[in-house]
Amino acid sequence: MNDFLADSDIYSGSGLSAGIAEDQKPDIFNAGQNQSITPGETLFREGDPAVRCYFVQNGRLKLTKLHQEGKETIVRYINPGEITAAVAVFRGKRYPVTAVAVVPTVVIGWDRNTILRLLSAHPPLAINFLQAAVERLDDVQTRYLELQAERVERRIAHALLRIMRQSGRRMDSGILIDFPLSRQDLADYTGTTPYTVSRTLSRWEKSGWISTGREKVVVTDPHALVIFAENE
Description:
9 helices; globular; DNA binding; Arc Repressor Mutant, subunit A; HTH_CRP; 12 strands; DNA-binding; RmlC-like_jellyroll; 232 residues; WH_DNA-bd_sf
């Protein structure tokens, strides 16, 4: 069981709870199993039976997929208020990706029977799950087009902007990507090499668009990065 009231802002701000009355939300979120995972710990692995889907209460997950040649690709980051693995659980399939905690993370997991009961009891929840699935599909299609059609520098720019919008925290110096993000992570996310990422970030840092540190990126001139991503 979970303490719904302790994190009611997360639940209320999540698209998963749209259209659901406040007095009904505890029934949904308290029905799952609460689990805490440490940075680098695996929540579920690609190919394992999809037993539960998960809502990120706080923290952040990294979803990765392993190619046949053994190369790992970052598919997406799952932020607080988002869900993952719902489609695989509904269909009784296996997890299509591996989920790893990027920072200390707390999730709520629902098994298939629990989700089906909740969908029956709370019809708006079904619409919210469908909306999340459609948005996820749209994101996958957008990233696929970027990988197929865009130069690597634009892919890196789009990746930074996407992560910034999802996970950015405003500071005096710019917008901080609020979790550890290494050159290797960006390379795995954009289908390139750490060397190319490092060279590109160094050039942008000299131009005053970003500021970097150890696994840290601050976007100091988002407007310039947007112009580059859209018009380069």
